[in-house]
Amino acid sequence: MKSLLGEERSFIIESDDDDGDEEDPAHREDDAGDGSSSDSSSCGTPRGGGGGSQPNSYTNQWPQSYRQSIDILSNVQSPSLGFLGTPTLSRLSNSFLNSSFLNTSFRGKTPEIVSSLVKPLIRPTTSDEQQQHEDIRKKSSQYLLPSRKPSLQQIPEDRKPVVVGHEASPYQQCSYTQGAMNGINVLCGVGILSTPYAIKQGGWLGLVILVVFALLAWYTGVLLRRCLDSKEGLQTYPDIGHAAFGTTGRIAISIILYVELYACCIEYLILESDNLSKLFPNVHLNIGGLTINSHVFFAILTTLVVMPTTWLRDLTCLSYISAGGVVASILVVMCLCWIGVVDHVGFENKGTALNLPGIPIAIGLYGYCYSGHGVFPNIYSSLKNRNQFPSILFTCIGFSTILFTAAAVMGYKMFGEATESQFTLNLPENLVVSKIAVWATVTYALTITPLAMSLEELLPRSQQKYSNIIILRSALVVSTLIIALSVPFFALVMALIGSLFAMLVTYILPCACFLAILKAKATWYQTATCSFIIAVGVTCACVGTYSSLSGIVQNYAT
After folding, report:
1. Where is the composition biased (Low complexity) (predicted)?
2. Which helix (H) or strand (E) holds 287?
3. Tens digit of pLDDT for each residue in 212-230?
């Protein structure tokens, strides 16, 4: 079996004769270019006019899989579910409908057939449906099966599109609601579980840091948009780094983004191990005189459970798990409210106004909450109306901040100084909602996939076999287990990720790229603001990283 990404980029088309073979690819490219803004793009397709279906200097360099793999993580359309009313479950279907290996599955099928197989969670309006059907009708003629046995011809190298499947997608681009839900789905992750602990560390006034980070995150998100609009062909964060600092910038930013995702996978294992060992503290295993406690046992068990999901070539079957973004975040806040009100735990704890020694850790925890900028360029590139991006960004950051604040305030008021690094550890063990809150945060396979796909690109073509891919992905999963068992400190690891990687991705790099690309056009106000944000980001990164590493070392010492 071929690699997910290492497939030889040779596009085989079906036609009736040689002349048709020569004309059909060009017709497809022209048609895709003409309708890029509204006809054939879906959430997650390349931007029109920016090289969506034509090779350019950005998409031809490593990591070529970034756009596709990050769409898997953020895009929200489900292949079959339409009852939740949000696009959260669709992040997989859309991306893989547009991917090269899914194109193999749908090759030879008309857009009507593909349309019946993949349905968005948010139903389009009547006018949108009419427009979509009209677009499908217009495009269907060029995808109909040939009337006789076709001949096969390879499209010349200079006429190949970069990614298979975009032209065949009959869906419109993301609406305002879909774009906002994509952003919320990215931001509302496991970071919400540590917001009460962040108040415990920094005090009530530490919430000001959360609000300031939210405002700065919105501004730097808008800067990313300005960078994307500055040159043709820019679609992703690595593309921006390439435009700003050349190939070195592209590779450096890509590595930072992938290491951040890798660290998040470690967090997932620590999270599940901590919570499951609390729910079942007496579980242990004896092997040859060696006793494995519940914490280690559940870390290994979680790894064994998630490992097969990382082997899948078609991740659309994981679309059910992909609901764990917005749904899980709302669910855990509801759990807190339920316990405080219905179970009469109460909101009696007052806490401290300010705890200066704990501020550095609080900075890292709050910074982790806004580590979604690696996905925002993808969301912007997939919008139907890109002028709405600042408003969409404000909506998703604002909504996420409200959820973070609600969870932080309720959790700390309920548990006070007894607040754990994840407030799920404070939830009563006998409540079903406790188990649901743990289960709903599992998105491991979706998070490790971008890193795995980027590494698969680096394999020699002769080694891009499915068996080798299984070995590579299994090794990645096992490595996260080893680190999770070696550094089982959830809050400190999260603070380290937030202090080091989130500060770089969310605050420092957007400003640096903006100044590098648009310095000649930037106003003095923009230059001053970017310089200020860079200074704040560097300071927070240094202070937070030092405190997190010191805390980890101290935990080892004790």
Report:
1. 34-45
2. strand 285-287
3. 999 999 999 999 999 999 9
